[in-house]
């Protein structure tokens, strides 16, 4: 019975497993650095909406936003960075900013965020 054929092996090699694991680890590290910026973006949206609904003048809107930014620990945008306009009777607050995340060596990930109240 020495003439029987061996069945083909299936599966991933150890080197392939290390490669896939390395890629997943790198994606996990990048995701762990991006998630806090997304949480901060939600806080900026919330603070801008609060400032737009409660503020009547431009200086009031900036002051209300700065107070909310202190509470929510917003560091990327300040009240002076907001674009405030009035459409009809409604105050519209717009913002845009960039966040840079250092990956390795000369590599950076640049995230550009922008939004406005409705």
Average predicted local confidence, pLDDT: 92
Structural class: alpha+beta
If helices are DSSP runs of H or I spanning 4 or more residues, what is the number of helices? Answer: 2
Broad shape: elongated
Distance between the amino and carboxyl termini? 79 Å
How many strands appear in the DSSP assignment? 3
Strand content: 25-35%
Low-pLDDT stretches are none
Radius of gyration: 25 Å
How is the biggest beta sheet arranged? 3 strands, antiparallel
**Helix share bin:** 40-55%
Strand order of the largest sheet: 1-2-3
Task: Spell the H/E element sequence.
Answer: HHEEE
Describe the protein in words.
- The chain is α+β, with helices and mostly antiparallel strands.
- Helices cover 47% and strands 25% of the residues.
- The protein contains 2 helices and 3 strands, in the order H-H-E-E-E.
- A hairpin with a 2-residue loop joins strand 2 (90-104) and strand 3 (107-116).
- The chain is elongated.
- The model has no long low-confidence stretch (mean pLDDT 92).
């Amino acid at each position: 019975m020495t003439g029987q054929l061996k069945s083909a092996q299936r599966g991933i090699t150890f080197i392939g497993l290390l490669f896939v694991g390395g890629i997943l680890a790198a994606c996990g590290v990048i995701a762990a650095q991006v998630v806090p910026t997304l949480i901060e973006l939600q806080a900026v949206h919330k603070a801008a909406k609060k400032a737009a609904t409660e503020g009547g003048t431009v200086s009031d809107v900036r002051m209300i936003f700065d107070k909310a930014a202190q509470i929510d620990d917003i560091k990327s945008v300040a009240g002076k960075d907001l674009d405030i306009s009035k459409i009809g009777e409604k105050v519209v607050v717009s913002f845009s900013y960039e966040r840079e995340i250092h990956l390795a060596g000369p590599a950076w990930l640049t995230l550009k965020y922008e939004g406005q109240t409705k």
